[in-house]
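G., the chain you wanted modeled:
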Amino acid sequence: MSVFGRGIERVCGVVAAASAREMVKQIRLVLRETPTVELRLDWLANDTERARLLDWLAQNRPGRANFIATCRRKAGGGRFAGSVSAELRWLARARQAGCSWCDLEVETLAKMPRKSLPGDLSLPRILLSAHDFRRTPRRALVARVAKRRDVDAVKVAANARTIGDSVRLLRLANQKQNCVAVPMGEAGLPARILALREGSALAYAPISQATAPGQVSLRELKHLYRAHELTRRTHVFAVIGNPIRHSLSPLLHNTGFVSQKIDAVYLPFLVRDLRDFLKAAADFALRGFSVTLPHKQAILKHLDDCEALAADIGAVNTVVVRGNGSLYGCNTDYAGVLRGLERKLRPAGSRILILGAGGAARAAAFALTRAGAEVGICARRESAARELARASGGEVVPRRALRHEFFDAVLNATPVGLHPQQGISPLQPGELHCRIVMDLIYRPERTELLKIAARKGIATVSGVEMFLAQGAAQWEIWMKRRAPESAMRRAILAALRKEKSLPAAPRRPR
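Predicted structure as tokens:
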């Protein structure tokens, strides 16, 4: 049994702020989700604030809570500018205030007399931690930390530059009891979510301020991914792409799993190299995955089999991992485009412009030409536009022609305007001469392109419609049952409306 306890106690909420007052607010929020709390004393602005927090804790400590005190010095990747002695004094004072654990970094331990560990310093139980924010540490360092006998538990937190790095870090948790494995960075996010399942003694998540790269919030960890409930029996699905953090596919699919009481989880994988991901897929025991930019075409050469439609399109957005590990590809973007556009337009006999020539554009071109539409392709690279037009039976439309040609519908299949770079449009007002504009981007729900179209009195179709349709079709391929579309729609629309109500992030200088 882990020294940290069972079940939900292994999810540790991280509290970090500059003032004691804000830290207390965060503690109260964390305790609604989990009784295990890490107090980042090094984030507090000064010693006065640290004293205020610990004085409050001494007088108000909830009986069921399990506090871990951390006062990480800058040498160990933290914010505390004081000496080793000062750090140890604060950790000892945290014990007096009611903290049952302290996180002591290897950099501090290296400067301490061996005989002083741990009782002479009146420290609480010790979690020895090694952090490497640049790369996955060498095996020798990991082994040295893991073999310590004078501490109660060990933690190795390292930046996972690749998915393979995160797998290697998780293996450490499998090999040693009372070990905390923390893959950092966006590439390590799926492994961070699965860490408890793989044997990590704790999984960290901030209530507010992220304290390490690639963290998900405490609420996401518990309620979106249900990390504390995942077991070896849980079926794992994924979405792969670059970028990927903007994706609402995890919300869509996990909502479906919860709604239908299915023991499955869907995770976002930042994939820069398909080979890296596919090599690690077996370690995560994936049952299937969605494919988004920029891998919809490149994935084809890695498949063992593919449905005829997806092969004709030349792009795959859905992969089934069969029982023998072979990969079977499908395309549900095709149905998503039709279902989204047919709400406003009958494709047969219509003249429709597709902007772009990537995977989503290919699905749209094949769907619309087979539905009887006259399709034009306009792309930044004219060679790509010619190839897609030839394959799908469409025609190439040069960008300069958009200022005078009319279309029944214009469909954006480029990523221009995608969150977080909303506020830009792939087309200018003078290039929109049509009855309907559809944007395949669903985040934000109303892109700058759709806003321009609306101001000109042109009907619009949000990419949300396509996103929901293609996602429900994926879910049904994997689950072999009807998708709970109403629950999925409510969750996605609620997330988009909430995001819309938040203050806009400042634009980056261009």
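Residues 237-331+473-481 form a domain with the Rossmann fold fold (CATH 3.40.50.10860).

Shout if anything looks off.
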